Amino acid sequence: MSSTKRAREINVTDEQVKRSRRSRWGHDEDDDTNVEKRNASTSPKTLSDIVKRLSSVVQEKTAPEELQALAAAATRPLFGESGQLDAQAARARALAQASLLSLSVANGSLSQNDLARRLYIGNLYYDLKEDAIRSVFAPFGAIHSIDLSLEPGASRSKGFCFLEYEDVLAAESAVQVLNGTMLANRSIRVGRPHRGNTNPNDSLSIGQEAIKNIPTKCVYIANVRLELNSQHLESIFSPFGTIHSCVMAAASPLEAGVHRGYGFMRFVEESCAMSAIQHMNGFELAGQPLKVGKASEAAMIINLATSQDKVVRIGPGAMIDKINAAESETNPFEEDDVDKVMDPNDLNDKCCLCLMNLVKCGEVDDELKDEVRGECGKFGDIQKVEIHELADHVRVFVLFNDAVGASKAKQALHGRFFGGNQVQVHYFSLRELEQQRYTSGFL
């Protein structure tokens, strides 16, 4: 074998190793490039490819016989031996494609209420999973379904999905609060799905019209500064009437005391809620204009059960029973777990991080520790990295030399993506780690 050929094979092998060791830490620029390459490689290049795809889709859709006949006619050459266009074949192809499109378009029998419960969510990170989307939209009410479109033959999404709530108040409040917010370093678009023959503005007004006559005592309050809490909001809104409860949406199940910048409030009287919406929507609080609108009672129940930042004025009413029932179902912590929570003033604990949701059980490989060390090492000197595979999930512990490096890493990596999974980063008690207690109650 010649030296030139041997060198070429070595280079190819090295390149394969580099590709196999490519970091799983997500970056949006890489995803956009990969999507363009994949789209270029999968797009049909010839007319025959289009016809083949058309025929295969017809078979997958189990179309009626007349449609299958159209597809068969569509396989005839468009140009005859004389070079003239075969009009019948061209028409057959057009009819077949039009029929296929009609199969994928919903019929017009849907009520306005059904349409108002549905959302379109666009500009999603391509490796985002359904669970991550659900966690963002769940605070607004009960979710009926999520339809996340995936690339053919891949586990990556197409960058958009459709979501349906159980009620229109949940859907409309989600549109008003979440449209334009950041998810996985992208500004997501949240609106109403519409057909090509309708005005997009008409689709946007569907939700507003649907909730106009729906009575509710609950309101959402968005664009709230993170320094403020439920007690602040209660004191500000109390002039409009007696408040039953106020709660801020928790940033995550593991950070129940940190809110997402919005919350919900329930008044005792419906008229008080409507008055608060009328006078407080657009009200500037601490330099930021508030967004206030109608909300679903389900949003109150869900968030009261999961958030620690709340004010509840106990009184008569069936809602208290609903809240208690929801808390018993959603709260995974025992009372004894409170003793295990670290002291936030202990600087030693500020040097230790716990990274979760990097990989699932059974997916730990030899490269995981090096990838974590390499990424975390960008923020400070690391003493050690430990990986522990528990019964239902994997935890990676990173011990920094100082709290400054740990703080920078926590801020940069929390919410980042690793191999398609959204990473959660939290401080962990160094004392518990040294005692090999890897399951602190609130983590």
UniProtKB/TrEMBL annotation:
Q: Where in the cell is it found?
A: Nucleus
Source species, domain of life: Eukaryota
Under the cellular component aspect of Gene Ontology, which terms does the record hold? catalytic step 2 spliceosome; precatalytic spliceosome
The GO annotation for biological process reads: alternative mRNA splicing, via spliceosome; mRNA splice site recognition; regulation of alternative mRNA splicing, via spliceosome
The residues covered by the RRM domain are 117-195, 217-297, 351-430
Keyword field contains RNA-binding: yes
| Biased composition, class Basic and acidic residues, residue ranges | 1-18
Question: Where mainly found?
Answer: nucleus
Residues annotated as region Disordered? Answer: 1-44
Sorted UniProt keywords: mRNA processing, mRNA splicing, Nucleus, RNA-binding
Q: What is the name of this protein?
A: Poly-binding-splicing factor puf60-like isoform x4
* Originating organism: Plasmopara halstedii
